[in-house]
């Protein structure tokens, strides 16, 4: 496994992490009696293959993902992992963010290493209030570092102007061969400011691993999954590169992201995927194959428009409404 530093002086993490949205989410149909066993097996595999970076959130399974992950991490040894979680974007004031991070730590059973703001706060709350709350969480020792998530360029610039005492180390955004919109203006800016890029949906919910038919609500509700699972041209190039490299399609998609300097956090329900994901860090794609992958996915730079700004729409949904809806449906 290879390791990298998050942002300027953040924690050392494996170049491939793991996403734990699938751990207990109804949208993934994975809230069953085998959940704890599967997460435990996944962490054992992560540990033996060098993956130390784990991502969850307070809204995943209404907190269940954090609880199950926290138990499994403590069972294997807390010091072996860098655990990231997220407080919901409706937490728009410093007090609410602090209470959110306290809840995260209670469910995990230890202090979170990286706390991220899951999406930008709703209007009319000043963005600086959220940044102050995140800084305060770090200064009070409730979290090791803080990061942002789903921040488009303009809001990221504003957030960095707000930060006075502690700088964020990362921005977690949707980025993959199937979704390259951040390349237009966000990624160059993040690079300039020394922020790590944590890539969510690195496999387009399985479409880049070769899954052709949606079998979960999470996949059915995702237009990127729908388009890319039916993209014969991209699937063919992925297959050809995979065969040439002696790898799987998922490993090719992850290796492409690592080559671009992103840290993918692929999700899973089947713990056997963890070894496959870890081995993607050893896969070196040839220049020619990178070019082929770039060319066949070039349409996804602009196809989704400013879709990565989609979370900006959430800014116009009042925080109370966001909170009530998420609580009523038991989280994501
Ligand atoms: N910040 C945010 O707003 C945000 C948003 C979304 C996600 N995330 C984070 O990013 C993580 C990953 O993103 P994602 O959940 O969108 O999913 P993803 O990583 O793009 O795709 C994961 C899915 O791909 C499937 N898969 C992989 N290899 C496969 C194969 N060979 N055959 C069949 N299926 C295969 C897995 O199936 P199985 O389930 O069958 O193992 C898994 O559920 C999440 O867990 C979460 O931590 C963050």
User: Remind me, CATH topology?
Assistant: TIM Barrel
CATH superfamily: NADP-dependent oxidoreductase domain
Residue runs with pLDDT of under 50 for 5 or more positions: none
Number of strands: 10
Plain-language structure description:
There is one protein chain. By secondary structure, this protein is an alpha/beta fold. The protein has a single domain, classed as NADP-dependent oxidoreductase domain (TIM Barrel, Alpha-Beta Barrel). Helices cover 43% and strands 13% of the residues. The chain has 15 helices and 10 strands. The chain has helices at 35-49, 64-76, 94-108, 127-139, 153-162, 186-192, 217-220, 223-229, 232-245, 249-259, 273-279, 287-296, 299-302, 310-313, 319-328, and strands at 3-5, 12-14, 18-19, 53-55, 82-87, 112-117, 143-149, 170-174, 196-200, 263-264. The strands form 2 sheets. Strands 3-4-5-6-7-8-9-10 form an 8-stranded parallel sheet. Strands 1-2 form a two-stranded antiparallel ribbon. Helix 1 runs parallel beside helix 11 (273-279), helix 3 (94-108) crosses helix 4 (127-139) and helix 4 packs across helix 5 (153-162). It is globular. The structure holds NADP nicotinamide-adenine-dinucleotide phosphate. NADP nicotinamide-adenine-dinucleotide phosphate (NAP) binds next to loops.
